[in-house]
Known about the structure:
Layout: H1 5-23, H2 29-42, E1 47-57, E2 60-72, E3 76-81, H3 88-101, E4 105-110, E5 120-124
Parallel strand pairs: 3-4
Antiparallel strand pairs: 1-2, 2-3, 4-5
Amino acid sequence: xxxxxxxxxxxxxxxxxxxxxxxxxxxxxxxxxxxxxxxxxxxxxxxxxxxxxxxxxxxxxxxxxxxxxxxxxxxxxxxxxxxxxxxxxxxxxxxxxxxxxxxxxxxxxxxxxxxxxxxxxxxxxxxxxxxx
Length: 132
């Protein structure tokens, strides 16, 4: 049975809130990545860190065009930040990752916020087939 992206996103948000409540802001992004993958696996979700994502440009194939911070259930990309405030480029970067990997939903999570709920942003890729 396949889990819908929205259900996965709810689990990720809940895990991020728990992690932030326990660890707080200010750690390295890599720490939050590791702890998030651990917490998601405890919840029965398959999550991978630093996943190489290939892209094609005309006849060129880049086997490792970028690395996604976390991919959950092969459907949702989680881009993790740990800074005082996000820049406009952060959400653009995640949207590009979604487009290039042909995924629909991503979460931009800034663990640097005082309240992590203020640092969680849902990014949606409108796929060419019209599905959102």
